[in-house]
């Protein structure tokens, strides 16, 4: 059954029911950590909230669920900011009251000073929100219960909490940290333990006590794997003089550099969005452009699309800003300056000459070429190299600057796989797009980055992209293609060869944004939304395939992949399937088509981004010391679903075969689709019903 809403009746359901609730479908949380933060209320310090959220992200938390009740406007600004990034699930709570009773509210009163009755109610209300969080995050691997005045630190050698949890065989861990864990030994009363739990293995959840299902038990998290720090004032009535044994512990300082950078960047972004606070820093007052807006450098035909921080290139150990954009054939030769700013500069900027790193020379008869520049601040130049944004000047940085770009700080992607999509435009079929994204997730892709042409994409295609962007699985950015002064606006037309070459260049600018923005990931796959990279048995996920290839070829910067074409002009061979990609199982026998005289199908790429200097759709420039390799045959299949190139492929009569190996993913693929709000994603009622029936059939088969 595909039930989306629920209403309630005391005796029986009837047509007079007027109110109901959406039924929430929990999201997949494999290899993910969530935090249940109970209930936020009162005048929370927004500065400390930013620090808390950034530390949680730093140690690998994937989402924080927060219920809020009468929160200050300043704190709500912070919550909404992190909600917009997809890191926080923000939910309002209205406290239930018995008929005839006064409304219940909580203000800034601390637990230690609250009347007993109020405190008991607070505990009970907190349990309601915790149990909501437990069920809403029921598909996550691990869930932590904690408050905004608490930090959970992974101890060396661990860098993230996921490493801590996965390194221990456990069900439920108590986490507490003081010099003497049991304070009652010193007469101060016991500090209540905290918990991490596996949501599918409990039947009751509370702030400090959880009940495991049968055959599971509660265990302690190994003491040397973590520290749990609770930042609070002394309970003067229960901890006389707070003179318990203490120690100065500087272990947390190993996170300081990355933590400080992230906190400054978020504070800056909050300022740009009108966030009002007691300023600890000041900014230079430039307007920061939104994603999708290019910055033109003075009167030059140089247009900067993105500015990305690199620690390793072009000068290792320095503060490098990698610029990606367009230039005509003359302007890039004249040069320009980067004007780097940091809130510590209090209105001043550091001027750095931009250095050309790459200019696209592959095609003639184009008006704009892809360019990449670098702006580098050597370590000896300034004490603090954590710049937040960059403006540009043709001759020198000065008072005439009005706009700037945020400097993107790449996220950690260790042990992760991403897909880079060039640009989506036109009217993509929403059903196929959703199927493609769910298959990517099914085979172990962690994130998909894609740009969409901001003036040429359908509403229904954009609705799908925005939905997946809200889940955190897709990072979506608008793409505005700049036009040279006096020339008409440009898009993606293929009516004339010169425009086709220009479109090739324009579509590869986002690829190089992706390879630098995600350069801390282990692997990037360059592909389109009409292509599938399918692991072959015994491999079930792409990370398994790619890790095998990396061990086999440790010096490979890339792995080329030859493609099989699934020609959509050929009749479908599996019409019973609800999934478009599974209805077409006939593919070419040969992956290198020129052996049969049909013209070559260009190879696709998987790259290790830290070993790549520049990327094209079908080729790359590796870093010195690295080579180009091939993904081992037998480990995968790359399927390109497209119409026949009649003129090039001689009527598409090439040798073909019906290959059913992809069907081993079908049941999980259908199940993933059936969990989605398909009515919001452009699916027709008939297609939704077909998916529901097919999922039910697979479920019945599993049960029997």
TrEMBL record:
GO terms for cellular component: membrane. Its main location: membrane. It is found in: Membrane. The lineage of its organism: Eukaryota, Metazoa, Spiralia, Lophotrochozoa, Mollusca. Pfam families: Glyco_transf_92 (PF01697). It is a single-pass membrane protein. Keywords: Glycosyltransferase, Membrane, Transferase, Transmembrane, Transmembrane helix. The keyword Cell division does not apply. It comes from Batillaria attramentaria. It comes from the Eukaryota. GO terms for molecular function: glycosyltransferase activity. The keyword Transmembrane applies. This is Glycosyltransferase family 92 protein. InterPro entries: Glyco_transf_92 (IPR008166). Belongs to the glycosyltransferase 92 family.
């Amino acid at each position: 059954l595909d039930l989306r809403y629920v209403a309630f009746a005391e005796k029986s359901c009837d047509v007079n029911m007027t109110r109901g609730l959406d039924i929430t479908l929990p999201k997949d949380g494999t290899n993910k950590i969530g935090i249940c933060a109970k209930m936020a209320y009162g005048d929370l310090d927004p500065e400390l909230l930013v620090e808390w959220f950034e530390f949680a992200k730093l140690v690998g938390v994937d989402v924080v669920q927060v219920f809020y009740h009468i929160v200050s406007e300043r704190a709500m600004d912070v919550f909404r900011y992190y909600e917009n990034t997809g890191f926080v699930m923000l939910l309002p709570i209205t406290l239930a009251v018995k008929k005839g009773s006064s409304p219940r509210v909580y203000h800034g009163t601390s637990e230690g000073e609250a009347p007993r009755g109020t405190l008991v109610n607070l505990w009970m209300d907190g349990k309601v929100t915790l149990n909501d969080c437990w069920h809403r995050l029921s598909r996550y691997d691990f869930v932590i219960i904690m408050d905004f005045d608490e930090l959970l630190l992974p101890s060396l050698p661990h860098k993230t909490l996921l490493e801590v949890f996965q390194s221990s065989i456990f069900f439920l861990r108590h986490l507490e940290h003081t010099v003497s864990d049991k304070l009652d030994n010193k007469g101060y009363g016991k500090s209540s333990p905290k918990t991490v739990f596996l949501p599918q293995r409990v039947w009751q959840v509370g702030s400090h006590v959880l009940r495991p299902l049968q055959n599971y038990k509660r265990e302690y998290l190994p003491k040397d794997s973590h520290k749990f720090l609770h930042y609070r004032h002394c309970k003067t009535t229960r901890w006389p003089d707070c003179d318990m044994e203490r120690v100065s512990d500087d272990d947390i300082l190993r996170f300081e550099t990355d933590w400080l950078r992230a906190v400054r960047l978020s504070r800056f972004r909050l300022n740009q969005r009108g966030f009002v606070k007691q300023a600890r820093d000041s900014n230079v007052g430039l307007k920061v452009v939104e994603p999708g807006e290019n910055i033109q450098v003075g009167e030059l035909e140089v247009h900067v699309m993105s500015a990305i921080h690199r620690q390793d290139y072009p000068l290792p150990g320095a503060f490098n800003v990698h610029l990606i954009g367009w230039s005509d054939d003359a302007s890039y030769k004249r040069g320009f300056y980067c004007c780097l700013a940091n809130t510590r500069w209090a209105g001043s900027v550091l001027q750095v000459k931009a250095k050309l790193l790459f200019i696209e020379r592959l095609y003639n008869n184009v008006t704009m070429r892809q360019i990449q520049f670098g702006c580098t601040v050597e370590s000896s130049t300034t004490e603090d190299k954590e710049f937040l944004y960059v403006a540009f000047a043709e001759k020198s940085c000065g008072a005439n600057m009005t706009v700037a770009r945020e400097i993107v700080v790449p996220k950690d992607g260790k042990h992760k796989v991403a897909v880079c999509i060039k640009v989506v435009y036109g009217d993509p079929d929403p059903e196929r797009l959703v199927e493609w994204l769910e298959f990517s997730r099914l085979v172990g892709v962690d994130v998909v980055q894609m740009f969409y042409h901001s003036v040429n994409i359908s509403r229904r295609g954009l609705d799908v992209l925005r939905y997946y962007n809200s889940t955190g699985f897709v990072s979506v950015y608008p793409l505005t293609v700049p036009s040279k002064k006096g020339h008409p606006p440009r898009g993606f037309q293929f009516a004339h060869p010169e425009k086709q070459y220009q479109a090739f260049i324009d579509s590869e600018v986002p690829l190089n944004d992706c390879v630098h923005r995600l350069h801390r990931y282990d692997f990037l796959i360059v592909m389109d939304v009409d292509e599938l990279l399918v692991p072959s048995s015994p491999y079930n996920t792409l990370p398994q395939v790619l890790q095998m290839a990396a061990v086999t070829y440790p010096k490979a910067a890339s792995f080329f992949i030859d493609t099989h074409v699934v020609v959509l002009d050929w009749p479908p061979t599996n019409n019973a399937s609800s999934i478009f990609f599974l209805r077409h199982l006939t593919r070419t026998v040969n992956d290198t088509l020129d052996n049969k005289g049909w013209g070559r199908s260009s190879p696709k790429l998987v790259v290790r981004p830290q070993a790549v200097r520049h990327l094209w759709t079908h080729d790359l420039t590796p870093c010195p010391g690295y080579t180009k390799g091939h993904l081992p045959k037998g480990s995968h299949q790359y399927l390109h679903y497209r119409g026949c190139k009649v003129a090039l492929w001689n009527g598409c009569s090439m040798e073909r075969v019906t290959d059913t190996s992809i069907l081993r993913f079908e049941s999980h693929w259908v199940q993933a689709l059936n969990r989605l709000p398909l009515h919001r994603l452009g699916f027709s009622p008939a297609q939704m019903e077909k998916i529901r029936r097919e999922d039910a059939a697979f479920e019945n088969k599993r049960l029997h």
